[in-house]
Write a structure and sequence with these properties.
Number of domains: 1
CATH class: Mainly Beta
Distance between the termini: 65 Å
CATH topology: FAS1 domain
Protein name: FAS1 domain-containing protein
Strand content: 15-25%
InterPro entries: FAS1_dom_sf (IPR036378), FAS1_domain (IPR000782), Mug57-like (IPR040200)
Number of strands: 8
Order of helices and strands: HHHEHHEEEEEEE
Structural class: alpha+beta
Radius of gyration: 19 Å
Keywords: Signal
Organism: Crepidotus variabilis
Oligomer: single chain
Helix content: 10-25%
Pfam family, one: Fasciclin
Length: 174
């Protein structure tokens, strides 16, 4: 009996890394990426853009996440966690993380910086931009704006499926 012939392995070659690849190598946003990997949204960050549909991701720095008064898995509201079962706590924490991560992703690529609200993947959550009057007009456009909550964009990376903006704050959700 002949052994089965294995199909030839052909590696995929891309001119740019995916958003997931960028998050993997960008140490300054490792906390955000550890939360994002816990969600189904992590698939979006790995997949190639379909029909030009890409993503714009605003990833808070580790420092920004550490300074949050309540961590993403805790949510924005204080609940009586003593009365929760472990299963309820785990389910609530997962929902909170998914909401927080989705508030940092916009289904637009490339993104235009303007004063319009841009809807995030979290229903009812928007990101808008305000031109910083003290910004250097000769700097890249993205450096001339702050987010609606005052967060500044400190870095931009381009991926095959979208843009990663590293921000010095977090998108706050209700």
């Amino acid at each position: 009996m002949q052994p089965a012939v294995q199909p030839e392995f052909i590696p995929q070659v891309h001119s740019k890394p995916s958003l997931a690849d960028l998050l993997t190598i960008e140490n300054s946003v490792s906390i955000f990426y550890s939360y994002a990997r816990e969600t189904d949204l992590s698939r979006l960050l790995s997949e190639e853009a379909n029909n030009g549909q890409g993503w714009t991701l605003f990833a808070p720095t580790n420092k920004a996440v550490m300074t949050l008064p309540r961590k993403p898995h805790q949510g924005s509201e204080r609940t009586n966690e003593v009365e929760m079962t472990q299963e309820e706590f785990d389910r609530t924490a997962k929902t909170n993380v998914e909401r927080w991560v989705s508030a940092h992703i916009i289904a637009e690529y490339p993104l235009t910086f303007d004063t319009e609200d841009h809807s995030t993947l979290l229903e009812g959550s928007n990101i808008s931009f305000k031109r910083d009057p003290n910004s250097d007009a000769g700097s890249p456009e993205w450096k001339q704006f702050t987010l609606n909550n005052g967060a500044r964009i400190v870095s931009k990376k381009e991926g095959i499926n979208g843009d990663l903006y590293i921000i010095d704050g977090s998108i706050l959700i209700d």
